[in-house]
Amino acid sequence: MGRIYGRSASDLAAEAIRLAVTDAGLRMSDVDGLLTSSGVTRGIGMDLAKYANLRGLRLQSDINAFGATAGAMVQYAAMAISTGMAQVVACVFADVPLRGGTAAADAYSSTPARGITGKLRAAAGVSSVAARYALATRRHMIRFGTSSEQLGAVAVAARKWAALNPRAQFRDPITIDDHQSSRWIAEPLHLLDCCLVSNGAIAVIVTSTERARDLAQPLVRLLGWAQAHPGEQNEQGSEFGIRSGAAESGPAALKMAGVVLSEVDVAEIYDCFTFTTLLTLEDYGFCAKGEGGAFVASGALEPGSAIPINTGGGQLSSYYMWGMTPLSEAIMQTRGQTGERQSARHDIVLVSGNGGVLDHHSTLVLGSAAT
Q1: pLDDT tens track for 78-115
Q2: CB distance 190 to 182 below 8 Å
Q3: What are the structural domain ranges in the chain?
Q4: Which of 371, 4, 40 is nearest to 219 (CA)?
């Protein structure tokens, strides 16, 4: 993952699957399910099975809920396994938006104008994902007094965690002043409010608890899950920028897992922008609605906090693999395999995925072998 050039998304995805299968102590012939997700390049799809030499599959689909896809794939894999449809499902994301000699921003600079609302946005100059998140951020600022400096605290905390992660793309420390002096991307969002861009692939293997007990890695149990798709961000009177799908999917996933938020040991939050982190934390209930700014500015996200959050540096500083970024870190934390940044308590780990511009949300609750 990172600034890797000269390899296709299919090549990276096939290697990720092989590495994940080996990591689990399985063989490629054991895989009878494949769920794929591609980023903006749409570089992988149904033909990946042939590319990866996977045969005799009993389950295969290409899924897209944008940044919520990774959580959704794991949920669908679990349901397939629980019904006997498949026994070992590989879930893989791959993307290669970076090109040598071009700016990283070019990969996500604009989105097609769809429908009347989309064309009106484009006519007003709101043509990028960052511009639309800027609208959501500004609305929260106006409603609750959230400040740019408070958003900067999210970026600073992510970089402190990334300094402990050998895989992170950006590890040099930053300050609030660095955040404030970084250039505007779409006011009120600075450069350091925005996630980085990465080429790469991540694969996750899902199987039954009974089978996993005898495999090579510490058991990571899937205790609960949920999704929410508000579908109202462009409507007058909507809660766009005020409340996201996390407010529904978070409590639902915790309820399914049979735990409450105070029992969560680690949280890995989807952070395409600093504001996304803040809003998700509010909606999950880590702080009251409107108090996210004060919460993140208090140091609650930094190493040494009561509940470690985005322990790998997240998408802001580590690597941008859509929803696989928080999911991969969550799995490693639950296993107890993250080295210097490892949380002493990691029996219950909460994972979020956010898709589109606050359009989609997925939540997973993972548990260690001790749960």
Answers
A1: 999 999 999 999 999 999 999 987 777 677 665 566 67
A2: yes
A3: 9-95
A4: 371
- Rounded to 10 deg, the angle between the 274-284 and 246-257 helix axes is 50
Cα angle for residues 345, 351, 354 (degrees, 5° grid): 155
**Rounded to 5, what percent of the chain is helix, strand, coil?**
40, 20, 40
pLDDT digit string (tens) for 115-150?
777 777 778 777 789 999 999 999 999 999 999 999
Active site residue 270: yes
Encode pLDDT of 148-198 as tens digits. 999 999 999 999 999 999 999 999 999 999 999 999 999 999 999 999 999
Which 8-state DSSP code applies to residue 110?
A: -
277-309 per-position pLDDT tens digit: 999 999 999 999 999 999 999 999 999 999 999
SS3 state of residue 248:
helix
Model-level pTM? 0.95
The active-site residue out of 133, 270, 284, 319 is 270
127, 276 contact by CB (below 8 A): no
* C-beta of residue 201 within 8 angstroms of C-beta of residue 13: yes
- Mean pLDDT, the chain, whole residue set: 95
How far apart CA 93 and CA 273 sit, in angstroms, is 20
Superfamily for domain range 9-95: Thiolase/Chalcone synthase (3.40.47.10)
Which of 133, 284, 319, 320 does the annotation list as catalytic?
320
Cβ burial of 76 (10 Å; 0-12, 13-18, 19+) is buried
Cα 365 from Cα 350, distance rounded (Å)? 5
